[in-house]
Design goal:
By secondary structure, the protein is an alpha+beta fold. The chain contains six helices and 18 strands. It starts with a strand and ends with a strand.
Length: 338
């Protein structure tokens, strides 16, 4: 016998497939797709796709799901050292979300050959509440501001905001050439690569049916010899967008051996001067709508290897300002005690 479940306010804007997995842990994606395709799962009486986003108050009709899917295996507790490092990396925390300064070298999610990653260690960031949820990603070697949602409903709202320009993202990078002109906009479509290079992106022709538009604004903040400090503002969120766009303007990010040609502008010759070979890309700041109203602004200090590079090159970076939640023009701001 079918059952009807009402979507709660905290579950608003969650994808149907994710909502189903929350209510029925272990239900495989293939089964969800079939239930939707055959009309066995309906929302407000209508057929829907697995990617449909739900609204509070909608009625989801479910068929009998017997036998019940097996519950997932219990997660292993995170390594104590990693747990302590993540707790120390918290920049901001309230009842709705947590913001971290993600260290470089830590993958956000698992994959082939990846045993240690942030997603597996999120229990360390419960702080007496539910396990937080990922709502966006940073590359393994990119450091800086990363947001976690503390409830399913907030996760849906933040994920929706990340799909728009409501999230104003600021990155800092050290690149291997001073761009000419020193500031501008990179409007270059990208496409995902398949085969052995899967998971990476490449420039695409505008008429390529697999291309997605990608736009990045940039400005040069300082330079030393052939190296430059760029501030980057991605207006879209494509995989490796900033790395591909910097290569496209002839200014590969220092340490980016995955995208820059080995000799592009002598990108890696700079390491002979004692600079780190690690990727020099940092998510410096995020200005975002807060789920409870107002605007949250969070900044993250540079990771150690970029701090050292800045000192060596004579770049003067201001320290990150304390997180602030702006409630409106002329209104007082609320600061985190995290």
């Amino acid at each position: 016998m079918s059952a009807t479940v009402t979507v709660s306010a905290d579950e608003a804007d969650i994808r149907l497939d994710r909502w189903l997995r929350r209510h029925h842990p272990g239900l495989p994606q293939s089964a969800i797709q079939k239930l939707c395709r055959t009309g066995q799962v309906r929302v407000d009486g209508a057929r829907v796709e697995a990617a449909t986003r739900l609204a509070a108050g909608q009625a989801v009709r479910l068929p009998p799901l017997d036998p019940a899917p097996a519950a997932p295996e219990p997660r292993r507790p995170p390594d104590p050292k990693l747990a302590a490092a993540l707790q120390a990396a918290v920049l901001y925390r309230d009842d709705y979300l947590i913001v971290l300064n993600k260290p470089p070298g830590l993958p956000v999610q698992g994959g082939p050959g990846i045993a240690v990653h942030l997603d597996a260690a999120l229990d360390a960031l419960r702080f007496g509440a539910d396990r937080p949820r990922l709502v966006h990603r940073l590359d393994r070697d990119t450091s800086g501001v990363l947001v976690l949602a503390r409830t399913a409903g907030v996760a849906g709202k933040l994920a929706a905001a990340f799909r728009t320009r409501a999230m104003q993202k600021t990155y800092w990078a050290v690149v291997a050439r001073r761009p000419i002109p020193p500031e501008g906009r990179i409007d270059l479509p990208l496409r995902r690569l398949s085969g052995p290079r899967g998971g990476r992106s490449a420039p695409a022709e505008r008429n390529d049916p697999e291309a997605t538009h990608a736009i990045t604004d940039f400005v040069t903040l300082d330079h030393a010899g052939k190296l430059a400090w760029l501030e980057l503002h991605p207006l879209t969120g494509r995989t490796h967008q900033l790395r591909v766009h910097c290569v496209a303007i002839g200014a590969p990010i220092l340490g980016d051996i995955a995208y820059a040609a080995p000799d592009q502008n002598g990108a890696f010759g700079a390491t002979v001067a004692g600079l780190s070979e690690a990727l020099h890309l940092h998510a410096r700041a995020l200005r975002m709508p807060h789920p409870a109203g107002g605007t949250l602004v969070v900044e993250a200090d540079l990771p150690p290897h970029m701090e050292q590079t800045f000192r060596t090159l004579g770049f003067s970076a201001p320290p990150a300002r304390a997180p602030r939640r702006e409630r409106g023009e002329g209104a007082a701001t609320e600061r985190s005690t995290a």
